[in-house]
Structure formats: C-alpha cells, structure tokens
Protein 1
Amino acid sequence: MKRDQKIKVGISIGDINGIGVEIILKTFEDPMMLDFCTPILFGSVKVLSFVKKGLGSQVALHGIDTLEKVIDHKVNVYNVWKEPVKIEFGEATKESGAYALKSFTAAVKALKNNAIDVLVTAPINKTNIQSDTFTFPGHTDYLAQELEGDAMMLMITDTLKVGLLTDHVAVKDVASHITPELITKKVETLYKTLQSDFGITKPKIALLGINPHVGDHGVIGVEDDVVMIPTLEKIRETGKIIYGPYAADSFFGSGNYKNFDAILAAYHDQGLIPFKTLSFGKGVNYTAGLDHIRTSPDHGTAYEIAGKNTADPNSFREAVFAAIDIYKKRNGYKVLTENVLKISPRKSGGRGR
C-alpha cells in the first residue's frame, strides 16, 4: 500500500434489526474518522438511508455497485443487494439473519481478494443467521474456514488481552477439547500475534487452569496436573515465557493480570466475564492467527435498544481503530522480518597471499 492511500476498512453491517447500522453511522458521524481510513459498508444504501433518517444522522453515504468505485474521504456503501428489506427493530427474524449473512460473506470475499485491507464486523444473531451454507456458531469459525492460519478469539484493549483455548464449546465438553496439541498450538498463535500484531518482542503469557483451584492436586479434577502442567513445561523449554496454570477465581481480582502481556483462558466465560467486567464498552474482539485482520465490538445485537438511538458506538469505534493499528504493525513486522532474512552473515576468509 502506498503511503498516500488510506487503509480500506470493510464493514459488515450485522443484523439489520439490531444496533449494528446505528453504531456504524454514529462512528462515522465524526468526519475525522475519514482521515484514518476509507470505510466500505457491505449492505444496501436503502437500509443505511432508512436507519440514517431515523437517527437524524448527517453522514453522507456514497453508494457503489463495484468495489473499483470506492472513493477516499467518503463513507462508501457497496450494494450487496438492491431489493427493499423490511426492518423490524428488536426482532430476530429469518429475513434479518439472511441479510446479515449476505453482508458478512460478501465482505469476507472482498477481504480474501484483497479488495479491502481489514474487516470490522457489526453484531449478528447466531441463531437466525444459520442456513444451509452457514452452520457455524459465529463469525470466528467461518473465518477460520475461509482464511489461512489458526484462528483464535482474542479480546483486547490497550492494557488487557485475553485469548481462549476453547471458544464456542459447551462447558460440559471443555475438558475433553483441551489437549497438549491444542495448548501448544494456541500458545504459539498467541505468542506470534503479540509479536507481529502488537509489537511485543518477548511476550509474557499467563494460562488459567481448567478446574476450580487448578484441581487441588487431583481432588477436584486431574486435567490441570495431567494435561496442562506437563505441556507448559515443554513449551517453556522452547524459550517462551509462560506461567500457570493459575486459579481463575482470584487471578483478575488480585490484579495479577496486570503482570502479563496476555492471558490465555481455558474456556469462553472464564475469560470473557472478567474481560467485559473490566473493559465493557471499550473492548474489541480480534480474530488472531489468520492471514487477514478482522475485529468487532465486544457486544451483541442489543435488540432491546435497537431503533431507539441510544446505542453506544465506542466499542465499534475502538474495533475500527484496532484493525487499523494491527494492520500497520503487522506490515511493519513483515518488512522488519524480511529485512532481517536478507541480511546474511559475512563469509569468513583470510587475506590472499
């Protein structure tokens, strides 16, 4: 990307009956946002204009039918569909799920084709988006299929990063999913992400235990002793700085999390409950470990306030900024790595006689 080109931020608009379009419009109500990036909304000018009118928004929308017509300093709306769509704020309808899927898959296709630089996704409903072609528990799992790499859900703020060993897995199945191979792979993904996407040269990572009190030496459960501890010992032999497993109940309340660059939680709620408690409204969901960048706000469709003009855009705005920052850091890391590889050691040799 040339220096004078803006980063192209593709945005899927999420469930049209939720707060997705509202928080997108509120984010770009500030014209200064267009100094940081060129937004491309995947949806419909008709839908965006309907919500815009209800909000009394002053955002100028630039409708396009091909991605070649994207213009900098404009809020571009790529018309994925043109037919009228009924919007029923607060209702999880089959129709709203179908259009959320159209927006998302079109944006992912553009991301794969490098027509956009990064992707920011507005919230979907994981139930009404299901179809014959989408049978995934969320954005992350679909992206893992479509993009290269090992996907990891990583919740981030400037001061807190929480990754997950398992994400959308039922609690009763968590222990059986956690294997030495999974732990090793997730630690490797998190370690590389902290280096390439956040500029942390020697990351310091904490791992939370599976069972209460890390199993109390087998009294509550054996998984921490049998699976986690031996695996962490092997990982440390590679030179990585990783501590744990820690008892999750006191880890955050004690402030111990502040001593680490990132925390790896065993399962969804173990990591996300403390993360959202500490940072709700400012947190970002980042799909780490893939060859393309995707972020999203740390909340859902919020049907209960949809259409009421009360949704807070802060988390979505942070998701846009995070995507831009990660894109820049990753590109900088690539350049640095390539330059290092180009430098070959000097060949030794004596003076000629």
Note: Residues 347-353 have pLDDT under 50 and may be disordered.
Protein 2
Amino acid sequence: MSQADTQTGSPNGGPPEEDVDERIREVSSLRKALVRPELGSICGAVLVFVFFFLIARDSGMFSPEGILNWSVVSAQFAIIAVGACLLMIAGEFDLSVGSMIGFSGIIIALFSVTLGYPMWLAIIIAFVVALGIGWLNGYLVIRTGLPSFIVTLAFLYILRGLTIFIAIKTTNKTIIGGVRDAAEGDWLAAVFGGKIFKGLFVWLGDQGIISTFVAGNRAGEPVVDGIPMLIVWAIGLVIFGHILLTRTRFGNWIFAAGGDAQAARYTGVPVNRVKILMFMFTAFCATVFATCQVIEFGSAAADRGLLKEFEAIISVVIGGALLTGGYGSVVGAALGALIFGVVQQGLFFAGVESSLFRVFLGVILLLAVILNTYIRRTITGER
C-alpha cells in the first residue's frame, strides 16, 4: 500500500472516511417541527375545537349554518391579520388598521350613495386613497426614524376623526345607508359582496344534505346558499401571503428587513421599499375588509373597525410571530384568526356571556406566547 493510500484510508485499513465538519449538525424532523412559528396556533386551534365540540356540539355550531357563521367571523380577522403579519415580520406595526376600515367604508358610501358615482369607481377610489395613506405611513416611519407605533397611532386618531367629520359634514349622520341599492348589479361589488357555488348548495338542499327553509317566501331554498366572497378573499390573501413569504426573494427580504435592517442593507436588500410596501399592503387588506363589510351590511358607519388593529396583532402573535420582527408565519396568523372566530361564535352557541370572549381570548394569547417562547428557548438554548 502506498503512502498516499495509507493517509487517505481508514485506520483499520477500510475504505476512506469522508471529512465531516464537526460544526455541522443534522437537524431532526422533530426539531424542525418545533421551531415552526405556527406551532402554538396549531395547538391552540386544536384545543379550541375540542373544547367547543364537547360543550356546544348539540347547539348547531358544527352544522352547515354554524360552520358558516364562525367561518365568516374568522375570515374577517384573517383578512387584516395577513397584512399585519407581513408588516410585523418586516419589523413594523400599523395601529391605524381599524380606523382605515371605517374610513374606507365611508369613502365608498360617500362616493357611491351621496355623490352618485358608480359603485366600481367608488371602490377603486377607496383603494387608491387607502394605498396612498399606507404609503404615507411607511414614508414617515422611514424618513423621520420614529417608531411605527407612534406614527400609526397618530393616524389612528387622524383617520377616525376624518371619518366622523366627513360623514357628518356631508350627510349630518355618522351612518350612510343605501349602499346595497347602489351596489345592485355592479360588477366589482359582486367581487366583494357576492357568493360562489350557489348551484352546489341548491343541489345539496334538494338532496336533503343541508337544511332548507320550510316556510315563507324562501321555502325550499337552502339555509346556506353559497360561500361569501369574504371567505374567498381571506383564503386568497392567506395563500398569496404564504407564497410571497416562503417562496419568493421578496419574502426573504421581508424576513431580513425585520431581523436586522442594517445588515440587510449591507447585503443589498431594499429595506425602505420593503417596509413601505408592507404598510401599503396592510392598508389594502383593511380596505378589502371594509368593502366586504359595507356591501354586506348595505351601509357604512364611522365607528366601524374599532379595536380591529389590536385583534389583527393578537392573531399574528398567537400565530407565532415575534413583536421584534424577523420571525412569523402567515399560516400561523390565519390559524390565530380562526381561533378568534371559533371562540367568539362558540361562546354564543354555548350560551356563555359574550363579555367573556375577550377574557378567553386573553388567556389563549397568553398561553400561545408562553408556549412559543418556551419552545424557541428550548430549541435555541436561550436562557
């Protein structure tokens, strides 16, 4: 055997051993699962469903009508949670989301009902104005260096005050009705306020699979006559946000901007542009919520969206995102929104006092944060 063979062979004369860097450790599948940000929300969702299945399964909560009820509520939370999630991962907050919902709704009603513009144009105007305000939020945060908490808190009051002022100044009321009539037959209104799969649900009613009305003008029609576009928008935004965050270079930029903005800039990440676009996307999601709500209710009210900004943030935190940025999951935020909807409607079906909703929610939030923090510290070895 040559000297080279001796040096490259194993000590026992067997085949050569590959050089392995001892700094590289293989990560187990369990470890990978435990570091997923949505783990806490998955556990929370399972516990919530089991709990309400045990105490409210005979109340109709899991009938087609009951499922539709809590699905609609969950979809409302999910729409604004997607925008809040991406913005929080990018390291920023937007406390003006709730006020943006009320503001966008009044803009739609004002232009369509009061000023007589076509509904599709009123909706487009509302989105353009909202995106402009989202851009302004992001621009002020970047240019002034102020915390986004302060800037968007200011806009929370600015937008709420403008909403009330505009409504009273133009109509002498804080509620503008007549939106449903203005939206009748409008092509864009149907995208936000229509329903899909109506024929399928009629067939399910005819087959006796789902309940139908037995009296009145709607006798024979299914109680659930389609899937509202609100739910479609929620699912679409969750899918879009998840793909954007996990399958694109821009998603990596979002994580980098929230994790270490200065280091990200050194590597060529356009941090300022990423943050501004995330503020605009948050405003977009709030306006989607507002448009669906206005068309569904047939009116716009200046006080709509109250406290929604905190509910969106709580959904994201339940979903495993860090308040410091750089870590989170759109799927986790969607599960947090699902927990919201199930708890809110589940308490109603269970006959529990509705004021306990926020107590229950606070407990779930606390447990989810504790679980996420414990798992992360266990895996990373932090103290």
Note: Residues 1-11, 20-25 have pLDDT under 50 and may be disordered.
Protein 3
Amino acid sequence: MMKKLLALVLTSVVVLGSLTGCGEKKNDAAEGASTEAAAETTVAAEDLKIVLLLPGEINDQGWNASNYAGVVACNEQLGTSMEYVEAVQEADFESTFREYAERGYDIIMAAGSQFDEAAASVAASYPDTRFMVVNGSKCDADNLCPLFPKEYEASYLAAIIAGYITENGQFGMIGGDPNQAMKDLMAVYGKTAVEVASERGIEGAAYNLAYANSWSDVALGKQMSESMIDGGADVMFAYANELGLGVINGAVEKGAKYVGYSSNQNDIDPNTVVASIDFDYATMYVWAIDQYMNGNLAGHQIVEVGVPEGIYFPVYTDNCPGEAMAACDQAVEDLKAGKVDLKALFD
C-alpha cells in the first residue's frame, strides 16, 4: 500500500489553495507579516530543521500514511531532511512541541486538529519556530499557520459512490472524534449518500453516525462496524486512522461494502472496498515547505486546499459500478468549476 501511495507523489509542484484570514485580522496585517516573513525565512532546504508529529503509525493505510507521504515527498523533491514522530499521545502533545522548539527546529508540523490547542499554547514561547497544524484553525499569532484540507470535498465524492453501491439505502458511518471538521465531512457524506440513494428510487434511505472517541482501537472499530451492519447498514464509511481498519474488517466479515477514505484502501479487499478517495497530501506538504523557504508563508492565515488543487481523487476497483464512477468523475469536475456549495450541508 505504501508503495502505491508514494507512487502518487507528483514530480512537479503546483500552487495550491487559498489563504483565509484568521479571526478578525485585517488583510494589511497579514500582508505585513508576509513581507516580514520573506525577509526572515528565506532559507536553503538542507539548512531547514523540520519535524512532523503524527497521532498514529505510518502503516495505518489512512491518515498517518497520507501525511507521512508528505515527509517522503519533501525530502525527495526539495532536498530537505524532514523528520517525523509516530504515535504521539495526547498527553505528550505540548511536551513534544516544546522539545523540538527547544532544539531550534524551524518548522514543527502536526497532523490533526487534536494538536491545535497544544500548538497555540506552545507557539507563544517560541516565536522563531513556525507551527503548522494540518486541519488546524488556530492562527492568531505570527508563527501559527495551519493547513486546512477541505476533507468534506473528499467525503462528498465518497458519498456519491456509496449512494450508487448501496442496495437498501442504509449507510453506516464511524468517526474517530467529533471535532468540527469531522462533523462537517460526516454531514456532507451522510446527506449526500441518502440523496443519491433516494434519487435511485430507494425508499427510506438513512444513515447511522457514531463516534468512537478513539483513533487507534482496531477491535472497537470492528465491533462498531459489525453492530451497524447487523442493524441494516450495507455500506460502511469511516475516518478514524487505525480504528478504520477495524471497520473494514467488520465489513469484510459481514459481507457489507465499504468506500475507502484518506488513502487507497482498495487492496485490503477489493470485493469489500469497491473504491477509495485517496488523499495526495504529498503535494500539499511540498508546496507548503517550498512556500516557507521562499518567505511566502506567514502566520495569521489558514491555507485551504481541496479537489480543485488535486489533493483528493477517486480510485476505483473493477467492482465499482460504471454509473458510480461516472457520477463521481462528474462531481470532481463540478467541484473544480465551483458549481457545488457543500457548506450548505454542514450541520
């Protein structure tokens, strides 16, 4: 799986995303910060000290694997010596941030909104270190610059496929933690899947959403998956790191279908995982570090990226119906053209 993921790393860097102001900061303040950053942070790749903090293992075939691909891409394409730390526990978030800031690291990245509060707390004490939280929202300091992938665009694509592969219109959904980004992407998935199933003439389409409050408990994921399938769900969906592998295992044993999310999970069992929405975070990482080296990535802003920037894309198996593939491909084009307002689906 890792080989396939790394094979997706692009050989050229494209400019991604839009910059969103943080809180009530004015544009002129952000522009001033950008000018100051340009003067202070232009640096050669080999001189950069960068580390990525991960909440789980890099072999989870999901979120951690997708972000780890960014480390590999930066080192291969930019010539950095970016490091990573696996399975950082919540109790150690602040101390790990402080450890690397004390050691003089230029950039400390962290994969997941669960790192947001800790990064904001520590950043004030280390103004010379840039803190970048993927899926973060805290950006009220010059050295806070979160990267926000619009994951709800990816869940929209997954939902369209789910809506076409279901036979009874019952969708099981499991999230690791009910943070706002998770709630948004789950709302988009559930409402879209039900709408597609209903348009196909399936009556009583509905979704069942539950949160595990865990990202790594594989056994719990399997248990929750089997329970939902026993309750009628014939298509499962999960976003929960290693716990998601348990959800897939439950679907395999119970004969349900599954739409992969956050990486290409098709090879786990193509009869069960009929398609995946892959995340090409390698491109996002390369762009972000390149922008930093050129002095163009200041604090006080959130960088947003999604389908239009090539971050999310579908990967199909031979078991995915043609109508599902066609509908998903059309959705990709509609998102790129700005024809879809997914925020209207948020709870």
Note: Residues 206 and 218 are 26 Å apart (CA to CA).
